[in-house]
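If your schedule permits, I should be very grateful for your opinion on a structural question. I have a record of one protein: its chain in single-letter code and its fold written as discrete structure tokens. Kindly check, if you would, that the fold set down in the tokens agrees with what the sequence suggests. I remain grateful for any guidance, and I place the record below:

***
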Amino acid sequence: MTGHVGIVACSAEGAALCYRTICLEGAAWLGPHGHPEVSLHSASLARYVACLDQGDREGVAALMLASAERLAAAGADFLICPDNTIHAALPLVLPRSPLPWLHIAEVVADAARARGLRRLGLLGTRWLVESDVYPDALRQRGLGWQRPDATGADEVNRIIMEELVRGQCREESTARLREEITTLADGGCDGVVLGCTELPLVLDDANSPLPTLDSTRLLARAALTRALGSPRP
């Protein structure tokens, strides 16, 4: 029997990439066209953004819990959230959640250690890079990190919120993201966390100045391992 994956979605593009990865890569375990059962629920992104702008973690947690309850009712066995930013509210969610969760930053940090990386640059929304979501997970594994400076963080946030979450990205915006990664490399980073689940749509190891940690696909693969009971064959 395979586990039933519940996806607590926030932004559409990242959630879609996570869902697609689970469905396509499930075939490595289950044969052509095979994948575990998956259910997805999403509140409006606008509701999440309103809470984030107000610094309202309780409001974010309430939205996540509402999705969790619906997914539990649909038969999910565990939950994932392909949105790094709202993991800042997860400590408020877990004590009240009807189901267990995989934590995206812990999944990424474990992958970084497995790859022998030691100091990671953090790319994501300004809410994420100002939070302790990744520092906490990395610190627990003996890994270092570096945030962009204020100007870089604002520019990355603009690209994410004005372009990527809408399924758009101009060539000059991708070039700007690469410049920011170069700055992180110059600061001593040996890898970069793609800590917005839309960033892997435009960045990967082929065009990034640093090795990338694709939070979206790493989470999807961890969900497959959890649902199917073993690492990828």
About this structure: The chain is about 50% helix and 10% strand.
